[in-house]
Amino acid sequence: MTTKAYRLWAALLYELMRLICEERHSLRNSWWVKALFKQTRPDWVEWKTELAMRDVEQQIVELHQLWDQQQLNAQQPVITEAAADGSNAQQLLGGELRARAPWISE
User: Fold this and answer.
1) Does the global pTM surpass 0.90?
2) Cα(58)–Cα(52) distance, integer angstroms
3) Which of 2, 44, 50, 84 could disulfide-link to 11, CB 3.0 to 4.6 Å?
């Protein structure tokens, strides 16, 4: 089990009290609710951050899978190289190199 930077029970208590205070607004002004929020907010923030990062990591995996699939389906360019014509420049650099889309005829 990994060590967490937060206390899960404190984060859940904050979330529960936050939901309760949405229904009963008068509780938010209570001294003990303010104290509870003050003590448990750092744990709640760390917990919510961890949940968000898990979601982001899952989205990254899904994007990489999508990109891999798109790359398999993508048409690769047609690259042709002509032989050197004997000039000094082409002897040094090689022949003509062309790249074209596969749906364009030569």
Assistant:
1) no
2) 10
3) 44
Return the half-sphere exposure (C-beta side, CA atoms, 13 A cut-off) of residue 72.
5
Element of type H or E holding 8: helix 8-23
30 to 24, 41, 43, 67, 88: CA distances (angstroms): 11, 16, 21, 52, 88
CA 82 to chain centre: 43
Q: Which amino acid is at 80?
A: T
Of the pLDDT bands very low, low, confident and very high (cuts 50, 70, 90), residue 1 is: very low
CB 47: neighbour CB atoms within 10 A?
A: 21
Q: Is the pLDDT confidence value at 70 over 70?
A: yes
82: which DSSP letter? Answer: P
Let me know: does 11 contact 47? Beta carbons within 8 Å: yes
Q: DSSP string of 15-59?
A: HHHHHHHHH-GGGGGSHHHHHHHHHHHHHHHHHHHHHHHHHHHHH
- Give the residue extent of every domain in the chain: 1-74, 76-106
